[in-house]
Amino acid sequence: MMHRDGFLNDGSFYRFEQVLLSITRTRGGRQWWRLSYNVVGTDVGGYLATRLDELGDSIPPYDELFPHMRVENSPKQV
């Protein structure tokens, strides 16, 4: 992974991880993740899957972090 190899510093890696995890917590993100798990690479896919299992529902969905990205009148994401 780029972080492990020194191409991303800790702060950038943490933010990147948080964005990806929060995207997977949206309805569309769950669908994307099911299709993209192997596309991102088995090491990245495995790492993110482990983090999703560890953190579970404590990860806020992306559209709760950035409400201006939310589609008007859409139901709350679960």
Provide tags for this entry.
4 helices; mainly alpha; single chain; globular
Describe the overall structure.
It is a single chain. The protein has a domain at 23-68. The chain has helices spanning 10-24, 27-36, 42-55, 62-65. It is globular. The chain is mainly α.
What fraction, in percent, of the residue positions are helical?
55-70%
Q: Give the overall form.
A: globular
Radius of gyration over C-alpha positions, nearest whole angstrom? 13 Å
| Largest sheet report | none
Give the termini distance in whole angstroms: 30 Å
Report low-confidence residues grouped into runs of 5 or more: none
Query: What percent strand?
Result: under 5%
Count the helices. How many?
Answer: 4
* Backbone structural class: mainly alpha
User: What is the mean pLDDT?
Assistant: 82
Number of separate strands? 0
Following the backbone from N to C, one meets helices and strands in this order, namely HHHH
Summarize the helices and strands and which ones pair or pack.
Layout: H1 10-24, H2 27-36, H3 42-55, H4 62-65
